[in-house]
Amino acid sequence: MTAIAPAPPVDRDRLLSPCEVYRLIAEGQLIVVHDGNALKLDGWIDKHPGGRLAILHMVGRDATDEINVYHFEKTLKVMKAYRIGRVQLPWTNLEPPIRAGPYAYPAVPELVVDAPLDSDDSASSSGMTDEDSLFSARRDALSWSNSSVGVSDTEQDLSKDDGEDSVLRRRNVPAKAADAFPPAKILSRASYTAAMEQKEIADGIRNYPSLDLETQQAIRTEYEALHKLVQEKGLYSCNYWAYGKESIRYAALFSTFIYFLRAEWYLTSAVFLGLFWQQIMFTAHDAGHRGITGNFIVDTVIGAFVADFCCGLSIGWWKSSHNVHHLITNMPEHDPDIQNIPLFATSPTYFKSITSTFYNFQFVWDKAADIVVPYQKYTYYPIMAVARFNLYLLSWMHLGSPRAAQLGSAWWTRWLEVAFLSCYWAIFGYGLLLRTLPDWPTRVGFVLISHMITMILHVQITLSHWGMPTSDLGPTESFAQRQLRTTMDVDCPEWLDFLHGGLQFQAVHHLFPSVPRHNLRKCQTLVREFCSKTGITYNCQGFVEGNKVVLSRLEEVAKMVETLVQCQMHMAQTGESGLH
């Protein structure tokens, strides 16, 4: 019997060229860059407690910032076992295959893969005499592969020398909003949508720091220093006394609910049950981010007890969507928190219909969207009032989906949630609604009132993102800049923090997801200083003003839809194709 030679050991310190990384990704391997190391996460993806999508959206990218703020030191040390080599920094991000589509990573010729990037005679040594063709091959292999809005190296140089307007001109993005598109009646759906998207890109490029590598690297350096400062100040440590006071408030609301229920003031008791749900879910949010004990098992049990047992909502569903939301905030095709067609549209991207990488489902822009979306400014609050019913459905759909089972050693969380959700419906559905309340009119009134009270929470959740930009400025934009560009904080007095439950500091929270919410106000001061240093706008509005921002955005997109419908009618009447 012939002995099988052992596989040669992997040199974890060897320097991988960008083309080598590209080739590995083109072959289907999951390569993520962290702190200058190339991590191969194929063997970890189905064990990742944060879900598969959190990894898939980082493939080909330098995810150092995202990984550091989402994981504790113990986990960061474990990641070193997946290192297959090093890469040269700063790293030029590739577009993750999940975002770029199945044809974005064509096979790379060996002559390109093996050619040293800084060799002066690489073209001749490889047999390629056309220098331009070699440059083109390298550019295609190393740049953002599926980008119509990305920033090329040439544009990065121009943005430093000639200002941002030169970048806008070369990308056919108008410098002024008024020049964004010709009269709508001569545009096809695709052309009109593209014009609206380009306008938003122009606004983002104009209003935020330059996208050149030097500027964005400086922002990353400042963000790394800010992260260390937050750690040094102990802001990742939980204030358990604050949770003691929270528990008193939860108990008071639940006791008041029970008191009025026993007194047969059923509809009044429903108000306090709704307030109890609204308040206690803030603790589930903290536990979902491991912001209470920092221990995965303990915080998962706390989160499941609060969300599933007390509120009837799956913490697993919330984590699976929320983790993705944090990484790719406000990206129409990828962020499930803004995918609400045909009820709402916060981006013109939805006009062309999109396939959600989260739901693996196509959101088709159809006649229903043409009719409903123009009124979204008026349907916003009524739909928020009944949004909880949709969350019940999503919770059970999640637990029945493969996503709930793809958690490796955390497999037990699925069955814990099933048990807790079953208990919730046994107590609330059977014990309270059917056995305690006297008749059907009272039951219907109780359910509607208790659930409508929680609209406060649903407005709070959507407030920080629905009015913010959805444009993708390309692969060079830093994690910190994107989070601050797409997220708005809500300004309120400190004594009112209990009502918002930390959701008023969403921009701060997106920069530091695991910081306990009782420390976010202290972090806010540091974030303001960071924004002042880097020139990034810190968006912060009062609660009333924030609602106006959201309603204005809903109205703006609604007017785009009305124009689009008029455009379609004009083309139908005149027979014009719109292809000008």
TrEMBL record:
Record's bilayer topology term: Multi-pass membrane protein
EC number(s) per entry: 1.14.19.18
A GO CC term attached to the entry: membrane
InterPro entries per UniProt: Cyt_B5-like_heme/steroid-bd (IPR001199), Cyt_B5-like_heme/steroid_sf (IPR036400), FA_desaturase_dom (IPR005804), Fatty_acid_desaturase (IPR012171)
TM spans (from-to): 265-284, 296-318, 380-399, 411-432, 444-463
Cytochrome b5 heme-binding domain residues: 13-88
Pathway this chain belongs to: Lipid metabolism; sphingolipid metabolism; Sphingolipid metabolism
Keyword Nucleotidyltransferase: no
Gene Ontology BP, a term: sphingolipid metabolic process
Record-linked PANTHER family: DELTA 8-(E)-SPHINGOLIPID DESATURASE (PTHR19353:SF30), FATTY ACID DESATURASE 2 (PTHR19353)
Name of the protein in its database record: Delta 8-(E)-sphingolipid desaturase
Organism: Exidia glandulosa HHB12029
Lineage: Eukaryota, Fungi, Dikarya, Basidiomycota, Agaricomycotina
